[in-house]
Design goal:
23% of the residues lie in helices and 26% in strands. The chain is α+β, with helices and mostly antiparallel strands. The longest helix has 20 residues, at 517-536. Bound molecules: dioxothiomolybdenum(VI) ion (MOS).
Length: 703
């Protein structure tokens, strides 16, 4: 294997509307998901059901499994006294059943293994758990979110402070000072989380194999191996097909460990563990609620002098997760005086995690509503306000942007949306019983490309090539766009590429997350293809292969790489009932070259719909008295349904970011949700004159 400098790929298949290469497998039901595999080694599995804590904090004093064990089909019950031991128990989310402590309501306190899923479920209901309960704290308030994490998003500074924010705010001709609240949100990919696991031996080396619904098979192996005291190559994780993730499958959660642990007790018999939709609300991560304090100081013409964005949010007492909510405020607009901060409440609750555009989504939701309020306070158009605050250089790093085309997105969207006809004052248009308004918001997302990706190219003869990388297609179309990239990198047709992915026995790849998959894996594929051609020429013998990682995976450090977008929404609010409809939603994006317009459009539309859903519906509720999540299915946790999604469209600027990747692409998975909720909220304000600052925006605000 070698490290290869990559050259730009000659564009041919890239940019085509290639139909998904796995479309037939998917629509005919032949695509196999995590608990559907029928391979010989996973036939006749035992089924695992989770027993979950009914207290928020305390200790398990006794697990009475007698009744469960008498139930027909139940094979065993594993509690903390009997569970296999891990060598590293420092990660209290993953190190389940290692002691008697309970850290949140819904934590796994026992596993039931049975011959059928029904018997396992009934068995779990028959397990009686006794507890010593301790006082808990499960509610985020302005008073308890006081702790500064060391970093946010594991890498960014918790606080920033430049210039003299307080003096600039005191001198500002226009001052906006508001507090906003965003709710708990729960990822709900179509395929609930699930794992099939089994243990074998190679001599006296134990091997753990899994089919796991995961965004990163290598990551799961790398995370679990040290906890078991194994080398990474003793764990093989496969995820050939995944029914969505949205961040919730980006890292291994406790159920993956539960499956591995249950399988450890069965002498080689495989186990299947399917997390229910309800259990997902407890165990597979969620977006923290936030309380966001924003102060903007500006001249009368809207030129910002100061931005202060102070965020309060929540983590879990058993494991820290700090959402980087104020991070986009650091680079979005010019202002000489700027301060951002994050403070956490460390609560006795489940561990929050990634949910599509973690940080950018709730941060820009609030920041872009605040900008709309500032435009109103200055009496200027919201697009003009953004023009006046367009920075020359990245305000955070002082570096030039690679290609900042926010204003191009705003102007193109304004033209398509008919912005010029927008009445300058709110509550100006009544159409029958409906107040009508339009709103805008900016979008941004960092361009992420991860080091540590390796691809393999093999000649199969007859001009055909096998290309392998251990990334995962979570439904985004990665298998298809990587086929296009590989075809162009090898200068062959897409029909001559056989792409393999979704297996940790394939070359190393980073997570399908942070909108980084296509950039990271595609760059490695380009590197391997270029080296293959250099080594073996254009007519290689079958069986020749080359493995390479991209030496220049980390881009040149002299620029700030971001994508941008502009979202426009029309809202209609019923004057009698407050019902909100969004008849039109448009996103215009600058994301570098689009590898496949069909799959890209799906990503943007999905992001826009998710942003619409967050603006109007999504709100998780936790009962602070017991610490449990009350909204735990799609009846009580509302999401946008088909009837809520009307005319939604996305387009993108024609461009290529040749400095960022050999394909010219920059990543598209998350930007569609960023800013969208703010555009919808701003449109409801323009329609009605009512400003909502506690999200989601619901009918009662207008009555
Ligand atoms: Mo995304 S939340 O980085 O999977």
């Amino acid at each position: 294997m070698s490290e290869q400098k990559t050259r730009p790929v000659r564009i041919n298949a890239i940019g085509d509307r290639l139909a998904r290469v796995d479309a037939v497998e998917k629509v005919t039901g032949r695509a196999t998901y995590a608990v559907e595999h029928q391979a010989p080694e996973v036939t006749d599995p035992l089924h695992v059901w989770l027993v979950q804590s009914t207290i928020a904090k305390g200790r398990v004093t006794f697990v009475d499994s007698a009744a469960a064990l008498e139930h027909p089909g139940v094979v065993s019950v594993i509690d903390h006294t009997a569970a296999p031991r891990l060598v590293d128990t420092s990660d209290r989310e993953l190190a389940i059943l290692q002691d008697d402590r309970v850290g949140f309501h819904g934590q796994i306190v026992a596993l039931v293994l049975a011959e059928t899923p029904e018997a396992a479920r009934q068995g779990a209901a028959l397990v009686e758990v006794s507890y010593d309960q301790e006082p808990h704290e499960a509610e985020l308030t302005e008073h308890n979110a006081t702790e500064a994490p060391e970093k946010v998003n594991a890498e960014a500074a918790t606080d920033t402070d430049e210039g003299d924010v307080d003096a600039a705010l005191a001198d500002a001709e226009v001052l906006l000072e508001q507090t906003y609240r965003t709710p708990y949100e729960h990822n709900n990919p179509m395929e609930p989380h699930a794992t099939t696991a089994w243990w074998t031996h190679e001599g006296d080396r134990p091997l753990l194999s899994m089919f796991d619904s995961s965004q990163g098979v290598h990551g799961v192996a790398q995370t679990l191996a040290p906890l078991w005291g194994l080398e990474t190559d003793q764990i093989r994780v496969r995820a050939p097909y995944v029914g969505g993730g949205f961040g919730s499958k980006g890292v291994a959660h406790a159920h993956v460990m539960a499956a591995a642990m249950a399988a450890r007790t069965t002498e080689g018999r495989p186990v299947r563990l399917a997390v229910t939709r309800q259990q997902m609300f407890d165990l597979t991560g969620y977006r923290t609620a936030t309380i966001q304090h924003v102060r903007l100081g500006a001249a009368a013409d809207g030129t910002l002098s100061a931005i202060h964005h102070a965020v309060q949010e929540q983590t879990s007492a058993i494991k820290e997760f700090a959402e980087q909510t104020a991070v986009p405020a650091r680079m979005m607009y010019a202002a000489p005086h700027r301060r951002t901060s994050h403070r956490l409440a460390r609560l006795d609750v489940a561990v929050p995690s990634w949910m599509r555009a973690p940080g950018e989504m709730p941060g820009m939701f609030v920041h872009e509503v605040a900008m709309d309020e500032l435009a109103e306070a200055c009496g200027i158009d919201p697009i003009v306000l953004r023009e006046r605050n367009e920075p020359e250089l990245d305000p955070e790093t002082g570096k030039p942007f690679n290609d900042r085309r926010l204003l191009d997105c705003l102007h193109r969207g304004a033209e398509r949306f008919g912005w010029a006809d927008r009445p300058p004052t709110p509550r100006a248009t009544l159409d029958g019983d409906w107040w009508v308004g339009i709103g805008v918001a900016s979008a941004t997302y960092p361009a992420n490309k991860m080091p540590g990706n390796t691809a393999r190219v093999r000649s199969l003869g007859d001009g055909r090539y096998g290309v392998a990388i251990g990334g995962v297609d979570i439904g985004t179309g990665a298998r298809t766009v990587l086929t296009q990239i590989a075809a162009d990198a090898l200068d062959v047709s897409t029909a001559d590429v056989e792409l393999e992915l979704g297996d940790s026995s394939l070359p190393a790849a980073t997570v399908a997350g942070g909108s980084s998959g296509t950039s990271s894996w595609g760059t490695a594929i380009a590197a391997a293809a270029q080296l293959f051609r250099a080594d073996h020429g254009s007519d290689p013998d079958p069986g020749l292969e080359t493995t390479a990682s991209a030496a220049d995976a980390a881009v040149a450090d002299d620029k700030a790489y971001h994508s941008f977008g502009a979202v426009f929404a029309e809202a209609r609010v019923n004057r009698w009932t407050g019902e909100i409809r969004v008849p039109r939603l448009l996103g215009v994006y600058s994301v570098g070259r689009v590898v496949n317009p069909t799959t890209a459009r799906s990503q943007f539309l999905g992001g826009l719909v998710m942003g619409l859903s967050a603006a109007l519906f999504e709100e998780g509720y936790r009962d602070p008295r017991f610490g449990h999540t009350v909204t735990r299915d799609l009846a009580t946790y509302h999401v946008a349904a088909h009837a809520d999604v009307l005319d939604v469209d996305a387009e993108w600027l024609d461009e290529s970011d040749d400095e960022f990747t050999p394909m010219g692409s920059r990543g598209i998975g998350e930007i569609g949700i960023v800013g969208t909720s703010a555009a919808v909220a701003n449109a409801t304000h323009h329609a009605t004159g009512v400003r909502v600052r506690s999200f989601p925006v619901t009918a009662d605000a207008f009555l």
